Amino acid sequence: MSLLKIDFGELGILNSSAQITHRYSEDELLDKQVIAVVNFPKKQIANFMSECLVLGAVNEKDVILISTEDTAMNGLRIH
Q1: What angle do CA 72, 75, 79 make, to 5 degrees?
Q2: What residue ranges do the domains of the chain occupy?
Q3: How many CB atoms lie within 10 A of CB 43?
Q4: What is the CATH number of domain 2-65?
Q5: Please, what's the largest Cα pairwise distance for the chain?
Q6: pTM of the model
Q7: Percent of the chain beyond pLDDT 70?
């Protein structure tokens, strides 16, 4: 499990966790923009409090993060 800190611009930095260790190294995740849901309740995962839900496509062996094609301002709404 990876513990993530995600910058949502004006919303601040929120914590999340994801099972993405098979596909992504720590270096690949630095400065990577992802799509996440922030209006869900916080969830306790082991000894970690997840504050948002990172979206990804799940195949048989790992999770592929859903991200933007081009750089967007952090914290923009997804429609």
Answers
A1: 80
A2: 2-65
A3: 13
A4: 2.40.50.140
A5: 36
A6: 0.87
A7: 100
